[in-house]
Amino acid sequence: MRTIRRDGWTAADYDSEQILHELGHRDAAARVNRARRRRPLRRAWRTLRARLHRPAAAETPEPVIDWVAARAAADAVNRGDTGEADRIVQATADPRGTAFAAFRFIGVE
């Protein structure tokens, strides 16, 4: 059994060495070291495979807020005409963004 060991061995490495030694392997420490050795080609292949199979991220478009429509919708809400405000907001390119923008003007006269 080898007495000088490479730094970085874990408890699992020692256990593996003991099991291999008990099974009759004369080079138990060498086998454990070989198992711990870095494999740059395997790592590169796994990285490449993960990148190839990763779904493409869909780019989120920038919100297009129609500030004039947001102001008009807020004025309609301030008058109590929510149906008109909904029609104004729905007619824009980004209804959700415009509706949220309209909240800035609700209650402001």
Describe the structure concisely:
With 109 residues, the protein is mainly α. The chain contains six helices and no strands.
Structure description:
By secondary structure, the protein is mainly α. 59% of the residues lie in helices and 0% in strands. It has six helices and no strands. It has helices at residues 11-22, 28-36, 40-52, 67-79, 82-90, 95-102. Helix 4 runs antiparallel to helix 5. The longest helix is centred in the middle third of the chain and has 13 residues, at 40-52. The N and C termini lie far apart (87 Å). The mean pLDDT is 83.
Write the layout of secondary structure elements.
Layout: H1 11-22, H2 28-36, H3 40-52, H4 67-79, H5 82-90, H6 95-102
Radius of gyration: 33 Å
Structural class: mainly alpha
**Percent of residues in beta strands:** under 5%
- End-to-end Cα distance, whole Å, is 87 Å
Detail the poorly predicted runs: none
What is the share of helical residues?
55-70%
Helix and strand run: HHHHHH
Rounded average pLDDT: 83
Question: How many strands, what sense, and barrel or not for the largest sheet?
Answer: none
Number of strands: 0
State the helix count. Answer: 6
Shape: rod-shaped
Core attributes:
59% helix; mainly alpha; single chain; 109 residues
